Amino acid sequence: MRDQYRQAAASLDGALKSIAATPAAQANFANVILAQERAVGDFVRAAIPLTFNAHVSPDPGLRRTARAIEKVMSRRFVELSQREDLYQLAEAAAAKGETLDRADARLLEASLRGYRDSGFGLSPEKRARLKEISTKLADLSARFEQNINDHKDWLEVDEAGLSGLPADYKAGLERTPEGKYKVGLDYPSYVPFMRYAKDGELRRALNDKYENRAMPANLPILREGLELRREMGLLLGHASYPALALKDRMAKTPERVAEFLERLTGKVRARAAKELAAILEVKRRDFPQAERVEDHERGYYSRILREERYAYDAEEVRQYFPVDKVVPGVLSVYQRVLGLKFSEVKGAKVWHPDVKLFEVANAADGVVIGHFYLDLHPREGKYTHAAAFPLLMGREVPEGYERTAAAMVANFPKAIPGKPALLPHSDVETFFHEFGHIMHQVLTKARHMSFSGTSVALDFVEAPSQMLENFAWERAVLDEISGRWDTGEKLPEALFAKMTAARKFNEGINTLQQIAMAAADMALHALVPADPSAAFNRVVAEITGIPADPASNSAASFGHLMGGYGAGYYSYLWSLVFAEDIYSAFAAEGPLNPAVGGRYRREVLETGSERPETESLEAFLGRPVSEDAFMRGLEDEPEG
Fold first, then answer.
1. Fold agreement between 218-312+506-569 and 323-501+572-632
2. CATH 3.40.50.1260 fits 323-501+572-632, yes or no
3. Parallel/antiparallel/unpaired status of strands 404-409 and 387-392
4. What residues form DSSP beta bridges with 373?
């Protein structure tokens, strides 16, 4: 793996040396801007599949090697952004004033903007400091994620401690040599325990462990990272890091984000208060004098309230979503809507026996577009959430359009003896969401890699996938992807009606929680507090009205803070406006309508960011973007 990286790096160095030798008088778009785009593209297509091993390889040695490569690669990109010779050639090429088409003009503009954001125009001393900051931030971000993924902890409980939990949950747990059960911090273990375990103290103990993942290692990393980002923003002439980070996003300014979050807060706060009061009433059956619902209690008492209000048991629903039915069903839906054909590649070389590889082709003409991997179940050392990783990003080269590849990585439950893996409906939504990212990455037709796939504005990138979560609530879709694991029976209409009635249950609380996390992310990056964990907890508590446990350090495992979503967590809510507007077109014309799906594929998925995202949305919708559909979804839930 190291040799493969060295070879790719040597090829990049050779290409850049050739570009740098171009006389300034001869510099133009083709021999400077486009040549560098292609050289970097060659390097990325060779190196990204190597660094991907850091997130999925079952071999600790390979993960370490991949992280080392990732670190070196990040530093290489920092150095590339600081190349004075290449910057001067880019300016010389721009000065030619060539007539370029839109995609090329955007690439030229993005290239110049990238150099200027790297400090060109600053003094040599300031630029050297900026380079030092960028290199350090890349290292800190990698360490932050590594600490989360490598954190190992669990709660040991006996038979009595599992009271209230489903039998197949217990059957799927590891045992200690003494015969106790190990309840881990992965989603398939943590979430059901917090919802069903009757023992409140055990729930508190597990929640304490969950809220303190990657402690104490990550808090100093976060503090240092925030300080460095603040310095970066100031060096580049901005009032704060958020001002720097947002200037090229759809939101543009921190003030617009603050106004958006405040407006949403006003929309949902009363509803959230009403929902919390209802949960508190359920808790008071056990604790008559209770004045509030603690963090470790909300999932448990919410589940009881939902079951009573809607006669709806999520565990009953789970029986209708075995993984071996959901996966082919979801793939079938995507194929039909987007005009595709997926074919499993048998005997493919993969990194773990659980992983499957699929070929993607046009249904109409059979032309192969690319490939995707599915890696769906948890294991030690693997990425701990759900995500879509681009492996081979799309671009046009002289020989034609290169094939793409991506990998969906998730942590869905595994099968137990005598019973297949069963998905909560929330995981079905997650599958639709993450596979939407896969399609965005694989189906791209953007000419330049810098604009292909999910290389769009951060506060738009979630919209195409969030839109697709709605498919998991369509009756026609559920008929394709559901089948009771023991009888094959489709999801019954009565149960579907209960699910639909309960769909917006606690939507006020959930939205307020997202608002709080977005606001905390912005506050940490704007104010850079001495104790980021305490500040994070304080902002979340102020907005949600749910006091944080003083011992909680959830900021230490909030990967978005040091990952690509720093000063950007608001994007999940911001992009929901676009997601719901997009889906309104599917709802009006039929969710499985291939004509709508084809238009969506053509105008949104294939274009990447070769044009502004708003233009892509309007081309699909045939009208200006509206937030009406999103705001309607936040209306008060009908009383059950």
1. yes
2. no
3. antiparallel
4. 357, 407
The 174-175 sheet, strands edge to edge: 154-157, 181-184, 174-175
CA end-to-end distance (rounded Å), the chain: 58
Rg from Cα positions in the chain: 25
Positions marked active-site: 434
Encoded tokens for 444 = 């791209």
CATH 1.20.1050.40 is right for the domain spanning 2-121: yes
- CA separation for the pair 509, 315 (Å, rounded): 22
Looking at the chain, the number of H-run helices and the number of E-run strands are 26, 10
Which residue, chain included where needed, has tokens 């704007």? Answer: 526
| Residues paired with 368 in a beta bridge | 361
387-392 and 396-397: which strand pairing?
A: unpaired
What own/partner pairs with CB < 8 Å and gap ≥ 24 does 355-362 have?
A: 358/331, 360/442, 360/443
Q: Tell me the residue type at 449.
A: M
How far apart CA 51 and CA 71 sit, in angstroms, is: 9
Distance CA 24, CA 96 (A): 10
368-375 and 404-409 strand pairing: parallel
Domain ranges, ordered by start, for the chain: 2-121, 152-210, 218-312+506-569, 323-501+572-632
Task: Return the CATH number of the domain spanning residue range 218-312+506-569.
Answer: 1.10.1370.10
DSSP code for 550: T
CA distances from 474 to 229, 323, 478 (A): 43, 18, 6
**How far is it, in rounded angstroms, from Cα 182 to Cα 173?**
6
Q: List per-block mean pLDDT (blocks of 10 residues) for the chain, which spans 640 residues.
A: 95 97 97 98 97 95 95 91 94 96 96 92 91 93 91 94 92 93 93 96 96 95 97 95 95 96 93 95 96 93 95 91 95 97 97 97 97 94 91 96 97 88 94 97 98 95 94 95 94 94 93 96 96 96 87 92 90 93 92 95 96 95 91 67
Q: Which residues, including other chains, have CB under 8 Å from residue 63's CB and lie 6 or more apart?
A: 53, 54, 57, 381
